[in-house]
């Protein structure tokens, strides 16, 4: 009897799996060639005026969203490090003092890179800010997020592997039309390391390219392999040198020992940023930090637990296949235990979304080497399709693995709109002949609040085992 029941369930499993089978979109779109925009293009325009601030970018400056770090570059002289700000246009009654740094990379000399922490801000408030001096001063604004609250709605954009081609520009422009309030950037920014001597000029152009978005809203940074820039042949042996000089992160607010991994909370989300290219195995600082940070996550306050990394743990593209495997071995059991909602990664230059699956029962002595449906597991999203000069990763593994829900090799970006503690609308938007086309859409049910509700409902309705099996497959659709 028991055996028959098991067989029935296995058959059900098989058919449900077929019915839900993943989709490989045959659509492929790369309108423009994978070459960088020329240096003299207006996308990289240098602002007018002596020593005018350029490459202006902001990021969250604290744990809970009441601070920003404002960064900019001056080229003729250091100038001052001051940010003037206030809540009314043209009335800058507040002032913050930052610092300045510069670096060399082989024969490249950077400009003067300013970082200024502006803190004690009010939530849900528009701030105007001004940097630079006299005639060449520039003015921008940003909006602070709502207070940390489980039902605070908020719209994030997700961009990865952006680079600086016309495809990159298209992705950026589409994102800017999306209504996204903050970008979760999953690594590989400028691709300056593709140039002779990792020409830092291409860091400057990239930072001017993205300024129209990132001067007005925070981009939450994570580092990719193109940020490592380890060039012992050029005498450049300190890793992540340009990236770390240019991009400040609020890592100390989450008790991290490195700007490369940290966490922030924003609206109803707890966002954990990891570094695929820093040590993360057991006993390393990143491992210890993550272990502690996960314990600090309070889903009653921030229901949405989101992790960013560069190299995807699940991805079925031929490119970079299994490069995230070592991090999967180190961290997947925690991600399942803590019911992470979504893990965003880049690296692979195509789009892919997984079902909720895990492979935590696998060890090298057990034979369970296939990922299985797991309702506690995150959904894995690879969005390394920003549009950089390396082009698309168009060769997917065939057949499509069962864990893969949707994949397509086109450029684009994603948005994640947190509605309340239980629901979030997620969308991937391809760049289609220069048009922004919503392509992959799913409604996420929160892994903490959604499943609490479901568990109560299941108990009340006395669902049978096979019905709850269906319920768990349904969950794979979220
Ligand atoms: C930084 O700028 C100062 C002042 O111009 C200069 O003296 C110094 O050499 C620069 N440092 C580096 C590392 O480029
Ligand atoms: C390996 O995995 C199997 C199956 O999950 C489990 O029974 C076994 O205890 C594991 N071995 C070790 C050493 O953890
Ligand atoms: C949460 O948002 C979803 C989607 O907009 C909506 O259907 C649901 O009713 C909301 N829940 C609550 C408790 O407001
Ligand atoms: Fe990468």
UniProtKB/TrEMBL annotation:
EC number: 3.1.3.2
Family: Belongs to the metallophosphoesterase superfamily. Purple acid phosphatase family.
Domain Calcineurin-like phosphoesterase: 155-351
Keyword entries, A-Z: Glycoprotein, Hydrolase, Iron, Metal-binding, Pyruvate, Signal, Zinc
EC class of the enzyme, as a word: hydrolase
One Pfam family in the UniProt entry: Metallophos
PANTHER family membership: ACID PHOSPHATASE RELATED, BIFUNCTIONAL PURPLE ACID PHOSPHATASE 26
Domain Purple acid phosphatase N-terminal: 53-144
Name used for this protein in its record: Purple acid phosphatase
Signal sequence segment: 1-21
Reaction(s) catalysed by this chain's protein: a phosphate monoester + H2O = an alcohol + phosphate
Residues annotated as domain Purple acid phosphatase C-terminal: 377-435
A GO term, aspect molecular function: acid phosphatase activity
Taxonomic superkingdom: Eukaryota
Coiled-coil ranges from the UniProt annotation: none
């Amino acid at each position: 009897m028991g055996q028959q029941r098991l067989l029935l369930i296995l058959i059900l499993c098989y058919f449900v799996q077929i019915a839900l089978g993943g989709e490989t979109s045959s659509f492929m779109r790369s309108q423009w060639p994978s070459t960088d925009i020329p240096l003299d293009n207006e996308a990289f325009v240098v602002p007018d005026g002596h020593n005018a601030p350029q490459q202006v970018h902001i990021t969250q400056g604290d744990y809970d969203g009441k601070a920003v770090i404002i960064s900019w570059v001056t080229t003729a002289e250091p100038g001052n490090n001051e940010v003037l700000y206030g809540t009314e246009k043209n009335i800058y009654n507040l002032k913050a003092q930052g610092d300045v740094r510069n670096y060399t990379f082989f024969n490249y000399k950077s400009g003067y890179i300013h970082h200024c922490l502006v803190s004690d801000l009010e939530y849900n408030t528009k701030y105007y800010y001004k940097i630079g001096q006299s005639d060449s001063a520039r003015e921008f604004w940003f909006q602070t997020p709502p207070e940390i609250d489980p039902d605070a709605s908020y719209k994030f954009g997700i961009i990865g592997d952006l680079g600086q081609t016309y495809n990159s520009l298209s992705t950026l422009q589409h994102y800017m039309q999306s209504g996204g309030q903050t970008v979760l950037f999953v690594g590989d920014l400028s691709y300056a390391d593709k140039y002779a001597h990792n020409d830092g000029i291409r860091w400057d152009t990239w930072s001017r390219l993205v300024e129209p978005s990132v001067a007005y809203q925070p981009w939450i940074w994570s580092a990719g392999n193109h940020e490592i820039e380890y060039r012992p042949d050029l005498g450049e042996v300190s890793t992540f040198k340009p990236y770390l000089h240019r991009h400040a992160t609020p890592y100390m607010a989450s008790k991290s020992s490195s700007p490369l991994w940290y966490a922030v909370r924003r609206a109803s989300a707890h966002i954990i940023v990891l570094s695929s290219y820093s040590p993360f195995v057991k006993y390393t600082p990143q491992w210890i930090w993550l272990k502690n940070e996960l314990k600090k996550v309070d889903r009653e306050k921030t229901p949405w637990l989101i992790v960013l990394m560069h190299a995807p743990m699940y991805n079925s593209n031929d490119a970079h296949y299994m490069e995230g495997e070592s991090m999967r071995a180190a961290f997947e059991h925690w991600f399942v235990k803590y019911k992470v909602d979504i893990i965003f990664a880049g690296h692979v230059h195509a789009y892919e979304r997984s079902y909720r699956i895990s492979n935590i029962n696998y060890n090298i002595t057990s034979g369970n080497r296939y990922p299985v449906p797991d309702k506690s597991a995150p959904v894995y999203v690879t969005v390394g399709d920003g549009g950089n000069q390396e082009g698309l990763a168009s060769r997917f593994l065939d057949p499509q693995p069962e864990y893969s829900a949707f994949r397509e090799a086109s450029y684009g970006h994603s948005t994640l709109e947190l509605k309340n503690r239980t629901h979030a609308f997620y969308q991937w938007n391809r760049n289609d002949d220069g048009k922004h086309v919503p392509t992959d859409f799913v409604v996420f049910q929160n892994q903490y609040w959604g499943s609490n509700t479901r568990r109560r409902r299941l108990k009340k309705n006395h669902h049978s085992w096979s019905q709850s099996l269906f319920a768990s497959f349904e969950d794979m659709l979220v």
